[in-house]
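Reopening this ticket.

The earlier resolution said the output was attached, but the attachment link was broken on my side. Pasting everything inline this time so it's all in one place.
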Amino acid sequence: MNTNDSLAIKNKRAKKMMLLFGMISMSMTFAGLTSAYVVSSSRSDWIDQIDLPFAFTVSTFLLILSSGTFHMALKSIKGMLLKKAQSLLLMTLVLALTFIYFQFQGFGKIIEQGYYFTGAESSITTSYLYILVLLHLGHLIAGIIIVLFVLYNSFREKYLQGNTLGFELAVTFWHFLDILWLYLFLFVSFYG
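Inline output:
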């Protein structure tokens, strides 16, 4: 093994470790917030149960579907099926944007129920709910930027030379975001 191969392997490991550390720190942030949610639920002003609008269920299925399309795009690129990979990346992007649309639809329904993030009508319960979902949404926007970057690189045919590390890391991060959202959705749906 020559020095360049050794450096490439070390570079690949370093990038995977950086992503892993990032995902661990995001997990710890959400674990802390959901722990605070549990501790705060003993307050006298806590709302026992907020019925999540159906739009959040729809958005959950959309995000799970997007994880599948992104994964299939990676398989397609590894199989040298560039056009199929690009189509699947576009589907992933559309599903992600539709997820965001349904998130805002869900928030609209929550506001219609009289639950607000700030102001006199707000409560600690709704503030936690909004923080959890909006923080995840912020991470998802970062994920959408990553999908756009991968799509751009696919048009430049960057991944056809077998250098799929960036694509693989993007798919791993996207799966992580999906798992994180599923955790938050189930937590808020069943806790309380």
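Reporter confirms the inline version is readable. The CA atoms of residues 73 and 88 lie 5 Å apart. The mean pLDDT is 90.
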